[in-house]
Design brief:
The protein is α+β, with helices and mostly antiparallel strands and 488 residues long. The protein is built from 14 helices and 18 strands.
Length: 488
Amino acid sequence: MRPAPTGQFVACAQYSFGMASRKLLLLIPLIGVSVASFAQQSPYPVFENDKLSPTIYKQRRELIKRQIGPKGVAVFFTNPTRNRNNDTDFRYRGDSNFLYLTGFEEPEAALILAPGGIDVGGTRVTEVLFTNVSTPQSETWLGYRMNPSGAKALLGVEAALPNSGFGAFLAKIPEDDKVWKTPMPAGATDELVPMIAAYTAWAKTRYASQQSALDTILADMRLVKSPEELKLLRHAIDASVLGHLEVVRSVKPGMREYEVQALVEYVFTRYGCEYAGYPSIVGTGANGTILHYEENRAQVKNGDMIVMDAAGEYHGYSADVTRTFPANGKFTPEQRKIYDLVLAAQNAGIGQIRPGKSVGAFHQECAKVLAEGLVKLGIIKNPREVGRYFMHGAGHPLGLDVHDEWGTTRTLKPGITMTCEPGIYIKAGSPCDPKWWNIGCRIEDDILVTEGDPVIMSAGAPRKAEEIEALMKETGIGNIPVRPFRRG
């Protein structure tokens, strides 16, 4: 937990800290140091060298500029900071489209693309990034900021300016340029508020006819991954798989779901993931029948089956992996039949993930196998009843968002990354033999569409029941007891 400040609080007009952090400003006199000179003097540390290159971001922006044409303008905002409670914010993560176009990871930023050109300090540019500017206070409380000069040098944008001048800059854009509408961030609570207000007032009479085209264009662009993107995604997937392996080795009846969560997140964080790609799901027994169960507080009981859907995000790209396993290391006969059926459905679905296939073909194949299998097991009487126990899509695109969009794509093509995740969820009280009650099972893998056979990128985590049972006989790092502390 960050320390609470002591001393006198001040507001800082030169730097936005977000709603919570504004309360945490300690009065620090700026003796002989201007904000501008401080920003120029302050170094911006670069800790890793495997992020995407500025050239890639520039190529993406150029594609958008060609789409909107010389008389078009596009304005993008990143996400706002989000307050968690009182003076604590949620950890910040930028808007995915903004990250895709800029690589800029800080809050309270905007990007203007104007292919016809705008004058900035006597130079005609077609893109301007607006960022925060560092002060001694901001670096004391929040750490380093890239600043406009750093953004231009490190990210390769043509021009970068302080976000305090965003509203005034809009007036420099030619009056006959038409604005292409882009999605606005919801729930803005920080410096984005005046920026968005200025943009809304300025743009209301300038909208082009293509009001919703840019988000679709971006979805299409993001769907097919470049080799550089696949490298980052593979890192996230590999780290997540390592976490799943250690959980399967370590889990035992008597543990708590949060212990399992802590273990998988420890491993993928240890291997470089900055975030969990989504809230980790660890559902034991009946909790495994809840699709987005996130409480993770229950005790694992002997005889339970555990559904764990957890993965890391690396440099913006998220994995998405689910495994289901018996708490005591051995499937019961009923659990094994459900598990094998889900695995058969997944294998059939993965077989449909080929170029030229419909984006829905793999879901239809999964549903067909599940329906036929549930009829054979006597759990349903008619294949049309499959939706009672398989009520979600069998997969989705994967990338900067764990649930990316298909855009206008209707057939699969090489370079698309997606999941295949059929499941069966039988709650207590369902209209079937009680021996099936409280069995939840989902198997999810990350798949790369290629020119030929699909590649299961998360194949390092075993899927066959016998492989899982064999792995559970090993000892994992979660079985090493934490040394107790001694009270003084």
